[in-house]
Amino acid sequence: MLPTTLADLLDSARVVALPMHTRFRGVDTREALLFEGPEGWAEFSPFLEYGDDEASVWLSAAIDFAWRKQPAPLRERISVNATVPAVEAARVGDVLSRFAGCRTTKVKVAEPGQSLADDIARVRAVREVMGPEGRIRVDANGAWNVDEAERAVHALNEFDLEYVEQPCATVPELAELRQRVKYMGIPVAADESVRKSSDPLAVARAGAADLLVIKAQPLGGVTHALQLVTAAGLPAVVSSALDTAIGLSQGVALAAALPRLDFDCGLGTSSLFLDDVAEFRAEDGSLPVGRVTPDAAALERLAAPADRREWWLARLERCFGVLAAA
Fold first, then answer.
1. What is the CATH number of domain 6-70+297-325?
2. What is the pLDDT of residues 132-172, one digit of tens each?
3. What pLDDT is recorded for position 2?
4. Contact assessment for residue 66 and residue 40, using Cβ atoms and an 8 Å cutoff
5. How many CA atoms are closer than 13 Å to the CA of 243, on its beta-carbon side?
6. For the chain, which residues make up each domain, given as ranges?
7. Which terminus has fewer CB within 10 Å in the chain: N or C?
């Protein structure tokens, strides 16, 4: 049974549109719907192309965060990584300058319309900026087939990768690639094979990944995500779904509650925005654990146009209906 009503959500709902420094994941402006519950503010921001069934899981996570107490934190701060979109190599230094104190960088690769040579140049530029002690991980969002992924991992191996995230789209492909590159000591991480799968544990059963990339909203909230990690028996890194500061605070709550946290988390993505609903950027490469309240002036400044607000409110109503009928 849902702990609230649709009227409660609509009463405090604010729709915002955050402009970005650089196009990322095909997005120039990130839209989100925020609402407030007894425990604080929460975010509902499934990507625009997601259907209502998938988006309703994100709404469940937001309602849980706003209406229920969260698992107790085991740490006070969460170390985070910098994120470099699929920009040309010459822009890498400018992007990294916005991530103060981060010792790890995730680099987007396999961008449509770009080549492996572009990826190599981008990762090389990151290594040059970060120096030999910096950690570099790459994320292909499942864009390579097994042969392409193997070739790319070989080509990028000189940059001492921490891991390669979702190099291929399917679990069998991940399992085959993992065996092919195992001798190089480069772990394979699964993201979409967990958060977009009807069976998120399949990747663990198949031995297709060395670690999981988990996100609070797509997995239905902090408690559900923790249960998944326990069942999978694999180490996990918590990442952002390009959330506003409100959604990032939920990701931080998830990272803080993980019994084991071996990796810097992908929760520093507020630095990709030109503006945000609250100040929640990494200091000395980490974020504090705790809830975030949006700034009233920022909510007004970043308010989405009327037609986009109506679109999101209609989506909220439909997804609430999905949850209520379950």
1. 3.30.390.10
2. 999 999 999 999 999 999 999 999 999 999 999 999 999 99
3. 87
4. yes
5. 31
6. 6-70+297-325, 77-295
7. N
CA-based angle 227:232:151, to the nearest 5? 135
Q: Which residues pair with 239 in a beta bridge?
A: 266
Share in percent of the chain as helix, strand, coil (round to 5): 40, 20, 35
Cβ(234)–Cβ(209) under 8 Å?
yes
Nearest residue to 171 via CA among 148, 199, 140, 202: 202
For domain 77-295, the CATH superfamily is Enolase-like C-terminal domain (3.20.20.120)
Residue 218 has pLDDT above 80, yes or no: yes
Sheet holding 40-44, edge to edge: 14-24, 27-37, 40-44
Per residue in 291-307, pLDDT (tens digit) is: 999 999 999 999 999 99
Measure the CA angle with vertex 191, ends 189 and 193; round to 5°.
105
Write down the pTM of the prediction: 0.96
Name the one residue in this structure whose structure tokens are 């193997």.
150
HSE-up of residue 232 (Cα within 13 Å, Cβ side):
28
Q: Are strands 27-37 and 40-44 parallel, antiparallel or unpaired?
A: antiparallel
Q: Where are the beta strands (DSSP E) in the chain?
A: 14-24, 27-37, 40-44, 77-79, 82-84, 104-108, 135-139, 161-165, 188-190, 211-214, 236-238, 286-288
Task: Give the residue carrying structure tokens 């990339």.
Answer: 213
Q: Residues with catalytic annotation?
A: 108, 215
Structure tokens at 314: 């209609």
Whether residue 185 contacts residue 154, with contact meaning beta carbons closer than 8 Å, is answered with no
